[in-house]
Specification:
Structural class: mainly alpha
Shape: globular
Bound molecules: zinc ion
Strand content: under 5%
Strand order of the largest sheet: 1-3-2
Number of strands: 3
Helix content: 55-70%
Largest sheet: 3 strands, mixed
Amino acid sequence: MSALFERLQPYLDKAYAYRAALVMLNWDNSTAAPKEAIEFTSKAIGILSGESYNTLINEDVKELLTELSKDEEQELLTAYEKAIVKNMNKEYKNLEAIPPQEFQEFQMILAKAYPVWEEAKNTNNYSAYAPVLEEIIAYIKKFAGYKQKENQKLYDVILDEYEEGFTMEILDDFFGKLREALVPLVQEIRKKPDHISIDCLRKTYDIETQKKLSRFMAEYIGFDFNRGVMAESEHPFTTNLHNHDVRITNHYQSGKLEDAIFSVVHEGGHALYEMDIDDAITMSPIGGGTSMGMHESQSRFYENNLARSREFWVPIFDKVKEFFPKELEGVSHEEFYRAINYSAPGLIRTQADELTYSFHVMIRYEIEKMIFDGDVDVQELPKIWNAKYEEYLGVTPDSDTTGILQDMHWSGGSFGYFPSYALGSAIAAQLYHYMEGVMPIKQYLEEGNLAPIREFLKEHIHKYGGSKNTQELLQETTGEKFNPEYYIKYLTEKFTELYEL
Ligand SMILES: [Zn+2]
């Protein structure tokens, strides 16, 4: 380790300790803490967040980073150390671009926006929410303007924060291809609503047994309970202290068996990513997955490409039936496979099936683009939203509650974040396609041998954490950058066969 980097290390360690404390408090708030705790606990969270920020954002660290960025110092650094310096420099630049006073004003607007959005959603009153949404958008535009480089478009600045290098040019191409290939497919499927029956998933499934089944599923895909735990929360999520303490949650509905199954496999995919990050960086600023899109690719790879395939259930479907012998009596493997792949356009993103999911994301992307790259009246957004749902999915929201008010993201200032969900699915398909060429992936699934699949992802993606970005990882793993064709081909083939089109 270079002598200079050694001087940076104590700051990193301290910042990590604060992060760990914050992770624990947030985990506890979502899983175990009593409902009324947050009002007071949030004080501790606020103080710790401030301390965590001050640990890394100060003159001493800034000076160290400047020195560490010089060519002669860079030569002394390991690849990981270089990546840490690069990552921190980027963070610095972002934070320094915004005047602290304006950043604080923005935080205050966000704090009041959440309850306004919640109330508007509950009372189907978009016009009560529009003014605060407008304020948020104005700030995001201003902040992006501070960071904007010459000839860079404003929305590209915003997109880059979530997925480095993924510009409107790439996303327009991606969503354009998706729209062209999949809108007709969805329309064909709409004509056959009874082609697949989901009755076998709609019986009454005992919750305690579902919990046991979820644990079985997590273990089956490789989640190590010596280095991880599973709890219950309203919305499933994954978090971690480091690669030896990865935590997932699940939720259960007695009348929807697939919900808990695919949530645990999805979160399990996120968890395997974190568990397989190199020990050397797991407690550093590059110790997490490299981006939202790449993280989502790993969860969806497990959830969709693996667990929604026929082959995946060959070795374990009988085992699943042992959990629910009465409810699943007489249900065949094929019936089950078809039921878990039932597709029907709906209004709610979080309830969408594998095929229609990306449409929900595409609609949000197009609207965000209109906001940041065009000129649109915020009051008009519900109309635009509804028209797009009708055009792409053939469904029209009966209220703004089930329309534009359904997601909390915008009220939290998260613009540019949605595309990552769709990118995740497309990246998963690209990786799967490549892996099929280098290993008998379907055969492994049929044999219940998931280890080589996980090992591949660990060696090519997971272990690097945030030291390489999405495009770099894709290029090095598959020999090409992001390519949406595999995703379109995968969905087209799968659903054409399922629906006999
Ligand atoms: Zn996810």
